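Posting for a labmate who doesn't have an account.
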Amino acid sequence: MLSLAEKKDQISDLSRRVETVLLFLLSENESLKEQINQEQSERISQNDTLESQLKDGFAKLTADLNGEIKIREFEGRQLRDDLKRQGNKQQEDTDRIGEKLEQERFERVEQARNLNDFFTAENEDRKTNLEDVNAWIQSENDLRKREAEALQERLEREKQELRDYMEKDSKDMKTKLNQEEELRRKKEEEIQEQLKEQEQARENEIIQLYKRMAKENIKREEEIDELRSKLEKEKRDLRAQMEHDNQDMLAKLNQENLELKDALKKDKLGLQGEIDVNKYSSNNQIADLDARLKQLVKDSGGEMQSLLEAIGRNQTELKSLINQPLSVYFDAYRTEDYLDGGEQYLTFSKCQTNLGNGFQPESGVFSAPKAGAYLFIIHVCTHDMKKALMTIHKNQQQVASFYDQNHESNHRNSMAGQSVLIDLEVGDRVQVYMFIDTGLQDKRSNHLTHFIGLFLRPKDFITSEHDIPPSRSLTNGC
């Protein structure tokens, strides 16, 4: 038969094993939380990088379009100046009308050829740029699709402006030719009155020049129609290519989402299985401990009645204490940015907790309902051009601090956080304080600021003057 000391040693050993199992479950739970938080941080960082790339690409396209508009405006002004100079030259005497018209025709042909070359080169440049844009679109999300639609609308407006400009130029040319014809007719009448003998010869010359100018005008209109048809064809091809690329991108994104959902579902099932196995193992160990205690009581007989009562009390206290850790928790978060400058305590929008009024989101105050060890975790995201200088207070005294500043002039957001274990008495207050120039970013649908509290173990965990000696009691591991 075992002695009393051996029996106490066995009870202490079983208690340590039970605590080891509980601590193992806690560590596994924390490891899983850290892994999930890390994956969420990586997803947020990737989204921010994609958003920055989209903004840079949009700014580049806007600059290119503005440059093209300025070039076309300059060419339009230059063309109008050329037309004005040619109109002034045509006001000379009748003998030089033929030479000036011939020179004007030659210049118009050159301008049409240069305009054709310019639009051809411009279309080639657009093809090259659109190939880069298509490659870029394949790695983006629905935001890039909206930007592509906006770019398509700009191209439509630009095409319409170009068409209006060409139509206006053609109308101006026709009007100018009509005015010149009227001027020639008036001059012809004057010459007819002064020189009747040369009337017939001069009339024939003017008619020939008019016919020649009409033919040149028809050719010029045909060239303009040909350029317009080329632009229409290029635009249809570009629109079809962009729609095809957008459909491919949507298909890839949907496939990636399905794969991610399947992976998360498998991880969830695996984690649930591990939790069930660990819970089943813990229940078996507790049941085994209870059976062995009952057997020990049966063997000890009446002379061990006092020991039986002490063991019963210990067993009841042990079950009660095992249920106490993790029985208090809260998770407070924000749904809007903080840009008030700091030098105050951080407040929260909402809170998930089992404390009732134990945590007050509007003031950010946690009041300890039980004495013991608590784990506190805080995570924040710095706002653009801001920093994070923060500390965790216990009863208005600093316990742990953390900061994030001076990284590339604070033009980018980054995550910062801190974790701390604190021994609290009933009524102790824990808050998060922000120093000057602190700015935090949060969204209504994406909560980046989280303040988490968890009750780990009560004060004087599994110690009693009737049961386990102080040397056998569980410690904090330090």
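Reply:
Got it, the structure tokens are right above this. The CA atoms of residues 112 and 220 lie 8 Å apart.
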